[in-house]
Amino acid sequence: VWRAPTVLAALVLGAASAARADDAPPPLLDREDARALAVAIDAAARDVAPALVEVLIDRKPAAPSSDGSGDEPLRSILRHADPEALPDGDGPSCGIIVAADGIVLAPLYRVKDATRCRVRLASGAILEAAPLGTDERLKLAALKLPEGRYPAARFADERTLHVGELVVAVNAPGGAGAPVMRLGIVSALERAGGLMFETDAAIDAANAGGALVDLRGRVVGIPVLVSRQTGLDSGVGFVVKPGAVRAALPALREGERARAGFLGVTLGTDDGSGSGASIESVVEGTPASGAGLRAGDVVVEIDGRAVDGSYALRDQLTSRKAGAPVALTVRRGARTLDVRLTLAANPDE
Amino acid sequence: VRRAALVAAAAIGFACAAPARADERREDAVARAAAVAARAVVRVEARDASSTAESAPAGAPWRDDAIPELPPPVARYLPGEVEMASGVIISPDGYILTSGALFRDAARHGRVLLQDGRHLEAVLIGRDGVLDVAILKIAARGLPCAELADSDGVRPGELVIALGDPFGIALDGAPSASAGIVSAVRPVPSDETKYTGPMIETDAAINPGVQGGPLVDLDGRVIGLCSPLLRSRATDCLVACAVPSNAIRARLLHVRLGGRPYLGVVLREDARAGSGAQVEGVVPGSPAAAADIRPNDRIIGFAARPIASAKALVAAIEATKAGDTVRIRVERAGRVFEVDVVIARRDF
Fold first, then answer.
1. pTM
2. Which of A299, B40, B215, B251 is 20 to 30 A from B131 (CA-CA)?
3. Is the CB of A231 less than 8 angstroms away from the CB of B237?
4. Identity of the residue in A92, A183, A232 whose CB atom sits nearest the CB atom of B181
5. Residue A81 phi, psi (nearest 5)
């Protein structure tokens, strides 16, 4: 059964296929492949379905819904997006069981205002879910189910991910129904400072917090919403990588509320040289002013990694937690400075 | 139930050629299916009966093979006087499935843009308010048409293609194709539809304008008719989906068999008995209106037989059935000409 999708993926990705009798170029996707693909998609979704849950959310009637987190870099990608709003999604949210002792991750913007969360398992059972930590960088919140053994998702090794790989976004079956599946490919590997990757599978409030699976049924990431979705599929979806989930899990279990890192500068427009991010102004009372950064400075490296523009610097900063130590290499006129500082949380949020 | 649907399909005589077998040689399945089905996709426009915008050119007798006299089609996704959707031809003699939303007001004028450039007036044969699907008829023959599949055989995960005219951009008449998979087959409770049966949910792009176009399988057969995006009550998210072909069969295609035949003229008995039926009025949106029959016209022939009186014309109409194309001989201001009309159905 699993040979078929492998063969198929090879065909779809245009890898060398078996020698053919005639000289015609090999087909991209013939009918046999298409059948195999349908079977593989369905099987992959069924594989992950037991690890997916519906999160039933009670909230105060007037509670405003806002993600309110430092996700400017991500928002800036969707230039037409309304930066103030994510869809409320009055229905249940998706969640995914990431540890067999009952840790569920769910979209942060959905559960942060909740007065009570319950979780409906694929079996239909409804359980209380206690809030644990949150991570604004990942747009995810952790919930704890009652003591017990739960079917945790099997995460893939993200190092095997490659652009063009077929992936399926799967949401929770919703009690009785079958999971809803949306097909796409991996569009880009490094987004949000490496915490996420990009897919063209349609992601919306109904399947954010679910699973993105490969055609072997392994979870390659958790789709999240980073901006308002119009309902017309933008073709740009963000997915938290398995490694980022693994790295964040201990702190989430401890109940940490991780904030995105904040430096305290505004960045100018890039000069197009692809080298460095130019500081336009420095806000008083922030890590940047404390470390002596000035308007006109150009950040060329962060923790030894080259910064190839303002977007890259924002990406790197918000992928780090508030409280994280950071080493910047800064060009000031003809001089090059090494600046060490500790990121704060954005005081406006 | 299935048998009944099949019998009905047989009775109404779909004469579409079966898709050629695909196993003759290996070829791209999506491209092939899109090509098979795309020929049958049309743009459908509807405008209010009272609207003067886009009125048909006066004077020339309406003919089904007329060279288009209207300006080239432009994008008209205008949720006002003129609205557009997509449609799919399901029989060579011009039956077309399209979005019912265009014809919630049954008096609206429908017009179909074929891929050969023809614009034909369409007669509303029937509309199902639950499915929000309408069936139209244009007076034409030998049209490329799509075959309706058995939608009970649709499997989640299978590759499908949505065909239609997103935002009215298909200026050459050829539709856009968008591939995706069947995401789920389930009811989609929404304020925008009364249909509570299972819908075929897909991740193919169904943008405004594509509604009414076909969702086809890899045989190029129609498994469903694209619905406008629905806002799911369960998730508060927009859902792209299609009304399954079997639901359309069961609820709508029977209209081709039943109902009373209907031309849409108001007749006056007058002193000139023996010389035809005097037209006093024409019902907007009716077959007569689509054929540009006007008040004060005199109908003197119907289906190649002379008409002596209003009573004779009524009897002649009663002898037809909905969907028939009939040639009518008309006297107007001393001039005699012939027009083809498509007889519609009425339930009143």
1. 0.70
2. B40
3. yes
4. A183
5. -70, 150
